[in-house]
Structure formats: structure tokens, C-alpha cells
Amino acid sequence: MTPRLTDEETQRELRELLENACNNEYEDTDISEDRTGQPERLSISLMEHQKVGLQWMKKMEASKNKGGILCDDMGLGKTVQAISLIADNNDERIKIKATLVICPVSLITQWEKEVLTKTDPPLKVYIYHGAARAASQAELAGYDVIITSYNVVSGDFPKKEAKETRKEQKFKRSLNNLKFHRIILDEAHTIKNRRTRMAEACYLVEATYRWCMTATPIQNNVEELYSLIKFLRIRPYEEAKKFKEEISKPLKRGRHAEALKRIQILLKAISLRRSKKATINGTPILNLPERNVHMTHIDFSSSEKEFYEYINSKAQARFNKLVAEGTVMKNYSSVLVLLLRLRQACLHPKLTLEDGPDNKELEEHMSMIVKEMRPTVINRLLENESNLIEIMCPICLDTPDQAQIISSCGHILCRECLYSKNTNLLNTTEGAMKKCPECRGQLVKDDVVTVDRFLKEHAPEKYEELLKDGFSEETQQKVQDMMMSSKIGKMIEILKQTKKDTRGKDKTIVFSQFTSMLDTLEEPLEQNNFKYVRYDGGMNVRKRAEILERFTEDPKITVLLISTKCGSLGLNLMDIWWNPALENQAIDRVHRIGQTKNVEVHRIFINGTIEDRILQLQKSKQSLVDGALGEGTGQKLGRLGLEDMMYLFRDGRIPPSMGGTPDFILPATASGSGSGSGSGSGSGSGSSLASSSNNPQ
């Protein structure tokens, strides 16, 4: 890692960074004709804005920064521009020409296909994943492009050691023993949390040139941008102290204009961002069809409304208790769980019911595992029993819907991350022993138990408390028997109308954060004669490719169900988040180069619920991000604060932080709360359907 700078060196670096910003002429306006032509090895014709992008990337590599952030809108061809840069490697003096591409596992095959089909002769590609990780350094050095996943890089990262030695450690395998010509992080916002093993592993990989590609360099707060700066080694801001002094602290102390101006200058110096509305010499860079967003507000049925009001009253009572105690922010994760239940109730009441063991044999097996857990692990979990069901998953940084405990070490993950092929935690086909992402201890599928089963055995009082917070057996049965919620009914109505209007030719993508919601959607689709395929985290890479091919090629299949945790990495959303970046990404997966017909986006909301307030938060978040990127006026950046939570749980008056009036008064007891843990990327519960006759790329 680079040494710390002296005050004199810091000032010099700042002057050079500012000079680079002033010399960056690549704006969303007129651009000169002087731009890089077509690399000889590229087999496709670059669009004009992509030629501009290639010229900018070559200029950045020739500068002191040796890289930067390509943050064009999704759908403008960031991957093509990166491949063009790789194909332009024609300096024979370079001993190692290999470019390392780190991307989500769901995009590995897409990257491979793009490289092989867009270069002639094809660049040599190596997939560093699974059993193929045994390749020697000499073998890797002979390839043009090496593609791997964030999880693989994180898995090769050393175990946690003393802080003073950790930075000096090297990877056990080949990646860190080889200095690459170039490293590219695709979907670079994946490392937005600088404290994760994933981010730290990426920081350590050595390369002459370093690139981040993401349409959303900032989603919730500026600390996410710092992680990218640290990876890129942009001086002087790669030093956490300097970033905090110049940017983070001014924001926290209310000096928003000053901080946002610095962020804009910094981004201008190291990034290229074009929107789909950008022009070159007065001509739009893209002529895309229209994107029409339809906002549909509907009412609950009487039974759904009664159910929601019950959930809402309990959530408000719990939140009011935390406010009175002044401990809201100390129980941040717990509050997100309350919001989670309200969102689920808007989709379908049965999503709020916890799933128990499937059978008696499984119940007995888990009971045995719980009893055999080591006393030290049991005691550590019991010390934190009040927060066990609200703890953050270390992989997705979300509050688990169904928390799972690894019995050998006691660390907790969400069920989807644990069983997902994306994380590869329990997939033993590669022959390697799987490890806990927290402590790197041995991870065996049969040694995983649910949190409620642990509490039933070792904290029966807490377990009984959970049962009291639940529903009667009669209520649970009524909910389980309900097939069609109001929201699902409206979705079916829209699908039928689309089928009628287009004679069954248009295709629709339906998104949900909850795989249980995807399960719930299947029966109504079948009963209404809609042929569909499903794409979620439980599938391996090749299965996903097969599903997308079927959706693309089979005219009878008109609906694609997709999990948000997949969609944010490569496709689209059925729930809204108060962070609008994920929903925008989803829509952009359809509204992109190659689309020839209008994209119709249907957003379905339930009147008089938390969804109305989440919509307002979405607008606020978008304003914050736009301000940092120089695309709007900008307001304070940050995760959900106490005012935001008061707004969501109480009377709906807009707090000052969102442009409301000063009469929004916080109770005196609430102002002294401590800092909570976890991320501010909680979610809302609307519905989004993207419909068109073309298919996502």
C-alpha cells in the first residue's frame, strides 16, 4: 500500500487532482471530433460515445491516476468500452498483459461471451473460478483476460490477523503473487463497505492500472465512494483521515455545499459519466424508445387491511418504546426488521409468517445439533440473545428474513446467502472445504440451524416471547390459504392486458427481494395460463444462462420472475427500496442499447400504507445522489436517520432533512441515541413490472 503523505505532498496531490479535473473536457454536451478510432482487434463497430470513452480511458491510464471510474448510465456499453481498452494493448514491451476482471459470479459467463465475440482473433480468456483456481502464475500470465468473482477474491484473502500485519500479508494463491497489467471491478459498488473482507481483498490485488465500473458510485452515502477511491489509490483521498476531514466531516456538520463541491471536483477528475440524454456535437448519443412509468395505487381488501393494521400497530408500539427509551439508533437493525414486516404485509400477508422446519426428522436433527453446540459458542450467542433475530448478514449486509446459525462457530447469515449458488458457501462440487465468511472456520451444510430453534433450546423465555408476537394457528391457516393478494391480483390484471394488447408477443419481468414472494407468484401465474421461468440466487452460473436463453428464445414464455439480489447484479425489481438506485438499475437493464420498443414500467402501491412514505424517501435519496454527482441541487447524504424513521412510523409529516417544515419536532428523549450498526439500504414494498417485446441484455 502507498505510504502516508506529508502536508506538502498532500497539497501537491490536491493541485494535480484539481488540474486533472479542469482538463477533463468530457461533458454531457458537445465533444470535439478528436477521439480514438476503432482498435484493430475489435470485431464490432464502436458507437461514437464509446469511442469517446475509450479515448478518455487511455488518457486516464497515461495520467498519474492510472485509472478511474467509468460510471456511465446502465445500458451505454461500459463493458464494450473496457474490452476495447484491453484489445488496444499493443505495446510489445509489456511483459504481462493480463487484465483481471472481478465481477459478480452471475456475470462471469457474460463477460467471457462478450470478450470472445467482440474481439478477432479472440482474446485469450481464463475463468479463475472453482477447480480452475489451481492454475500456476506462469499459466495466468499467458492470458489476455482473467475473469473471477468477488467471492473468490474474498475467499483467497488471509484470515483475520493482527491489524499491523494484515496489510502486509499476501494471498495464499496466485492472484496476489502476480502484478496484473490492469484490474477492472465490474459492478464496483459491490465493495462499497470498506470494512468487508471483499473490499480489503480487492485493495490488495496489484496492477499497473486500476478501474471501477458502476452506474451507481454512490447509493446511500459518501463513505461508499471512499471505498472506490481507496481501491483506485487516488491520492491524497485514499487516506481515510484526509477523506473524512475534507468530505465526511463537513457533511456531518451541515456544510453540505462545501462538501458536495469537493465531491463533484473529485469525481470530475477521476470519472466519466454520461446519461442516456447526453449529446455529441448536438446529436443524442442514443436514440432509445420511450420508457413509460405507470404509478398504480390500489386498496387492500378488508381482510388484508385488518391484517396490515395489526402488524402496523405492533410495529408502532415497538418503535414508540424505543423512542421513549432514546435507543432507536442503538436498535437500528431491529427497526429495519419492523419495516421488513410491513413491506411483506403489503405484498402478501403470508410472507410475514416465519417458516418452521419442514418435517419431524429435520426438527429432530436440528435439536441434536443445537444441544451439541460448544458451550463457548452458546454463551456468546446468549449474551446477545435480544438482537439475534435482527443481526446483519455479513454477506449482503441486510437484516435476515430467516436467520441461520453456523453451529460450529455461532456466526449468523441469512438463508438466501447461505444456500445461494452466488456465494458458493454450501456447494461442495468443487471439492474444497467451505468456510464461514466471518471467521473462515469449517462450514458444513448439516451443521446449520435456525435462530428460533436455538432460542427454543437455550433461551425458552425469549422463544415464548417470539411466539406471543406471532399469530394464532387459525390466523396463520387463513393467511396460508390466501392465494391472491390485492397486489398479486393487480399484477395478473396488468399481465392479461399486456397479453391482449400485444397478442402475447411482449415479455414481462417481475421482481421481488423475497424468494418466498416468487414462490407465491407461481401458482397464480399457472392458474392464469402464463408460461414463466425463474431466475434467482439458488441457481449456478450455467443454469442462469440457460434460463435467460429460454426466456429470450421461447415465444411461449412471456414472464420472468427474478430475485432482487440477482437483479441488482445483472437484471431487474417487485419491491421498491427507499434507495432508488436498485430500482433504476433494474429498469435500465431493459431500457438499453438494442431495445426497439417502448418499455412500460408498472409500479403498484397500496394506499394508506408504509409504501406511500417510502415513495417520498425515494425522491429524497435520488436528490442526494444527484447532488453528489453534479446532477441536481443535492442535500445531506447519509443512511436513514432518526427523523426518517419517525416519518415512516408516525404521522407522515416530512422532516426538515427531506425538505419539510421546521415544526417536525423530535422528542427530547430520542436525541441522545447512540450509533447503530448495519446499512441504511432498507427496502420498500411496492411492485415493479418492466414490459417490452425485447429482452434484457
UniProtKB/TrEMBL annotation:
Residue span, Helicase ATP-binding domain: 59-235
GO biological process, one term: double-strand break repair via homologous recombination
Residue ranges constituting the Helicase C-terminal domain according to the UniProt record: 490-641
Record-level GO cellular component terms: cytoplasm; nucleus
Residue ranges constituting the RING-type domain according to the UniProt record: 393-440
InterPro entries the record matches: Helicase_ATP-bd, Helicase_C-like, P-loop_NTPase, SNF2-like_sf, SNF2/RAD54-like_C, SNF2_N, SNF2_RAD54_helicase_TF, Znf-RING_euk
Gene Ontology molecular function: ATP binding; ATP-dependent activity, acting on DNA; helicase activity; hydrolase activity; zinc ion binding
Metal-binding in keyword set: yes
Domain of life: Eukaryota
Matching Gene3D superfamilies: P-loop containing nucleotide triphosphate hydrolases, Tandem AAA-ATPase domain, Zinc/RING finger domain, C3HC4 (zinc finger)
Pfam families recorded: Helicase_C, SNF2-rel_dom, zf-RING_UBOX
Biased amino acid composition, Low complexity: 686-697
Feature: compositional bias, Gly residues: 673-685
Chain segments carrying region Disordered: 659-697
Hydrolase recorded as keyword: yes
Family membership noted in the UniProt record: Belongs to the SNF2/RAD54 helicase family.
Protein name according to UniProt: RING-type domain-containing protein
Organismal lineage: Eukaryota, Fungi, Fungi incertae sedis, Mucoromycota, Mucoromycotina
